[in-house]
Amino acid sequence: CVNDLDVLPIDPSMDTSDKVYDSQEALYQGLTKIYAGFAVSGQKGPSGNGDLGGFDEGHSQYWRGYFVCQELPTDECVNGWGDGTLPTVSQMTWTSSQEHIRQFYYRALYQVSLVNEFIRQAKSNASAEWTAVPQYVAEARFLRALAYWHALDLFGNGIPFVTENDAIGSTLPNPAGKDERGPELFNYIESELLAIVGDTDDDTYVLLDPRKGMVGQADKAAAWMLLAKLYLNHGVYLAKVDNAYYTKARNYLNKVINEGGYRLIDATDAVDGDVYNVYEYLFLADNYRCNSEIIYSINCDGLNSQTYGATTYIINAAVGGEMNKADYGCGSWGGNRTTKALVNKFDNGDIRALWFTNGQSLEITKQDQFTHGYAVVKFKNMTRDGKPGGNATSEFADVDVPVFRLADAYLMAAEVDLRLEGTVSSANLNNLKKITDRAGVTFPTTVDLNYILDERARELYWECHRRTDLIRFGKFTSRDYVWPLKGGDLNGKAVDKKYNLMPIPSTDVMANTNLKQNTDY
Amino acid sequence: RVSDAANGDPMPGVTVVVKGTTNGTITTPDGTYSMQVADSDVLLFSFIGFKNQEVNVAGQSVINIQLKSDNIGMEEVVVIGYGVSKKKDLTGSVQTISAKDFNQGAITSPQQLMNGKVAGVQITDGGGAPGSKSTIRVRGGSSLKASNDPLIIVDGVPMDNSDVSGMSNPLSVVNPNDIETFTVLKDASATAIYGSRASNGVILITTKKGKGTDIHVDYTGNVSVNTPTKMVDVLDAGEYSELLKQKFPANAGLMGSASTDWQKEIYKTTTSTDHSIAIAGNVKKVMPFRASVGYNNSNGILDQSQMQRTTGSLNLNPSFFKDHLRINASMKGMLLKNNFSNTDAIGDAISMDPTQAVTGDAYEPFGGYFAWADSQGNPNANAPMNPRARIDQKRNRSTVNRFIGNFQADYKFHFLPELRANLNVGTDVSTGEDDGGVQNALGAAWDVPAYARGGAYNTYLQKKKNELLDFYLQYTKDLPDYKSRFDVMGGYSWQHFWKQEETQSFYNDPLDPDADHVRDPYKMTKSENYLVSFFGRANYVYDDRYYVTFTLRNDGSSRFSDENRWGLFPSLALAWNVKGENFLTDNSTVSNMKLRLGYGVTGQQDIGNDYGYFGVYTAGETTAAYVYYKEVNGSYQRVLVNTLRPEGYDANLKWEETVTYNAGIDYGFFNDRLYGALDVYLRKTNDLLNEIPVPAGANLENVLTTNVGNLENKGVEFSVNGVLIKSTDLTWELGANVTFNENEITKLTRVDDLNYVGVANGDISGGTGNMIKIHQVGQPVGSFFVYEQVYGQDGRPIEGVYVDRDVDGEITTADMYVAGNPSPKVMLGINTSLNYKNWDFSLSGRANLGMKVYNNIASNAGYFNRMQTSGQYLGNLNSDVFNTGFFTPQYFSDYYVKNASFFRLDNVTLGYRFKDLMSSKMNMRVYATVNNVFVLTDYDGIDPEVSDGIDRNIYPRPRTFLLGVSVSF
Fold this sequence. Notes:
The complex is a heterodimer. By secondary structure, chain A is mainly α. Chain A contains 17 helices and seven strands. Chain A has one domain: Serine Threonine Protein Phosphatase 5, Tetratricopeptide repeat. Chain A is globular and about 75 Å long. Helices cover 6% and strands 48% of the residues of chain B. In chain B, a hairpin with a 6-residue loop joins strand 4 and strand 5.
């Protein structure tokens, strides 16, 4: 009877690892969990069996947390919900116990842990006949590099560093490096990406060529974009500019632009019955059809990937006031809107200026009032022909998150030119003009870095690039550039430069004595 | 003539034999007997449940005998873990409450019978819903994450503490009228025999058994009226309208013209009834039995809430081979039908705009009920929902069947009567079925997803099966030559807990209301765990003055890995019967005086996860899958892939251990007219099972249940009972108990860190993810963690202005502080009974002092902006807004942390007893009881007694007026 104490799960939906990975398909489900980890918050959907504990499950979704960190503290978005200390994010007065920042930190490192576990299991369980497994491993490594890059960008080089070589629960992870701005994590992400795009000696684990996989699957172009992002921001991460990295960025951007087979969505994509403009196509319920421009997306689905995060959050939180939620195929949570600093960057006739203004004031005098600031209707859970997404009645969105897209690559390539040579090459100028042509505005006579930063806001707002961009241009904390609510001031004011890095959550500094808090937190 | 030593009543059916022969007879109904004997014979008198007695005939022609009782349930014998003990031999802190001391009135749950009666035991019912669950805490909780519920053992079968679906109170299976005694084992020397489940105390429940020879019939029945007592103070239509026009004139157009008191719309006065009938006796003098049937129909004050419960029980306790083999077979069955109504209506009734009518012609799409709609005519999901519609349009029912049965055989060896073997096998099976939802396509605007789907419906089925096998041997020996007595017991126990849950939801297709129900995927989960134990106990008594008890239990749980699976739980107790010493034996004032000292280690393994120590994979549901698209020639195919998630685990998970020290004194004066006990205790829980942040990246979870942290409870318990007047016609008894308990977290992290704030907990209504409590080192468990409010000269709180406690010029989370906690520092229980001739009068009440409650009802509705959050709908306010004047919510102000000390008069009863009615054998008592008579408190919410200290959406406790009758013949 003492032997009864050795139990194995009797639940049909639970199994131990040696039993569960009995086929290549099962391994693919394990890999898909990593993809899904960017799109949903748990195993039940929309909530009920969350990946992370101790948080409201909706808040703990990856892209929702990333949006809070990348957009709320910028000129592109304001939120005043009374959810814990969320208002301090828009005010840039957060502390190391800010729970939404903490959520994203744990979510990002959770994704890393998932990848580590997957690689361990794939290597120990896979049979030689499962020929797709090396490519699965490469995809998992891309997703780990992506999560690590987000974490590096937000929290710096002092975050815990774990790979597939660290067993579960055995030790306290060490920080990637001892300095918050240092080369260790940067170098690791770079080496991982170089390996999986086949640019090192070891080409065992290589991604598919651009556009050879499914929409939502990471391919070489996604990794090239991530390499370019890493190189472009190297000056921030390494606290030192080295032009060699800009050259490397140029190299990979050129691969994206010239070898990827991508093109911007434009008038040629429009057909009769479409009720939105071509720029809007990129942010609609059927935007999987934009895979000629979107290089890598986190796929969302209102029926089969239910969550209170991702684009469901981006859309629902942006609808309120006098807006009719049926026009956006979603619910209305009334939280996120934008500041005049963004609105005023647009010329008249720019089709990208997607605001709802009835009952909304441009000026913000109260952070907690949704009607203060223009509502943003860029993301909509509607298909091109004006029908709501598949589960609009339950208010879950089908809109895929465009993580990387070609327009971003064009803008980055031009920025690299400016940083290396001071001028933009004619090919890249031509590409920039494609962006303004699509937007329906005149191309400027001169293109400088200020133009690039503003044009990035116009083209890419609410796509989670803004905080990184402002920091790269030295405008995130400084008095060079202020916007309403920066520093908690309605007119905006400079904040301490420590805010260029998010704090490592106090819970982890406590739990892991190897870690060191970022400067001045 | 043979009579009962306790009361002098004649004893029929007593066996009288000439010792050493088979010559004998049995006493007649009046207790007399006659038989031919020789002068040299020795007569042996025996009767089940009484001590045998031998008498030398020695020429006597009339031999009158008084037999002394010797059985479970009798005054001086107390049920303990795996056996019984004479009360005077107890070495631990043990308290028994028997039927005559139970609380009276409209009592549907066994827990309420003993509320306020036992020092150190706090019982909080979950509100006024019929059959609601009571939370029991013995000497404060000993755990943060793991269960704090005591182990409850009914007739030898340990209950699984987790809920049975559809049944709010797992103990409902026992009809309160069937209960004979509660025995509360409080300190570790008493509980350690239950090892890994004993850290929160043990409550042993025994049910009534057949005795005597005649057939007895007992009927009790009552009818009660339940009335709401206090409503939440919200704005009425007039106040609301005036305020809205003044503060938000732009939204005045949204108002209606009615005047609705939404709370009155959902609460009503109801009546409940309870009947139970029991037959007890002895079939052919070999089969003592008791059978009972009970029916309870409780109607709650929230409209439509109802519980109908039918219980049946049968106890058989025959003995064979001249009492060498005693059998105890016990069966309890229950059929429960619940209508939960829709308790969400409670919250909506206090936030719904009072100027709106309940129904109206314009609301036909919503079934005629008023609802806030958006410009497209769809219900607004963010708005308060019509509480009346919530109740009328939702079905929320459950049906639960439960059976507990056990068979216990106790065999006293023929060749060695000092040795007993005891075997106990039992089972506890239940099925709980819930079903509810919006069945048809007609609109239920309060459930927006269901509305959109044309009705949605869920069923849920839970099956549970717990099995038990216990076996022990006990050897008892008297050594009169050495003035010594000892008994040694050793045994084995095996338990298996199994459960399965199935859910199924379906809905109508919104586009085709005539279509069959569309089904969501069927879901099923299963889990099980095992406990295997070896245990033993040794008692030694010297000269009835010095007592030593040692117990040891070795528990194995399937919830932990091989290395940590087994836990050893020892205890030691010493007692000194001071009364037995020369200097006190002849003292007429002191009738009892015993000192007790105890030490013991107990454990906790109820961590809620059966597979916490090894890695498993969980398949994702199809609502949490991932969709890829395959592009083929410009068209896109959906490719749906389900996921597999590796779960985090802690391979080193192990028991939580609580070490308890207890010192006590039992006293009795004036021939025990005044008696009671005083205990002091210290309980230290180590290796707390706690959900803590895991170092990021180290595991597959960010929080994990693991062993870290220490917790301390210390306290004093004192009880006193007195018979103040005792004469032929008049008896007045008074009992009181008081408990002081202090609880402190002493460690929370692996590494001590002064900067560590603690673990936030206690979700509140308002915002998402806001938590008002904290587990912090140096503070009680679950303390309120808030900002200190600044008040203006007019004494009103200033909105958003808090004390800068760390004086850094900024208000940050570093300024938050602990402002009290929800655990009472002092608990008092008082009860008294007065008997005059045939009249009886009793009352009992409780006070909890020194605890705080967070008034979430006020904090979430006591600010002006709530009237018009979006301009699309209106919401009512809590009248507290006039005290604060807040415009925006100030959830974290200590203004809302309120003193919740209270005294509640739980019940008052007046009864009259008709003796020897009609025939000489029939007794009848009629009585009237008021329950929840009044509450004295400063707290301004509706009720200060809130089990987790966060006051929101509580089902109000009714005041109950009851008329009852009990008849026995």
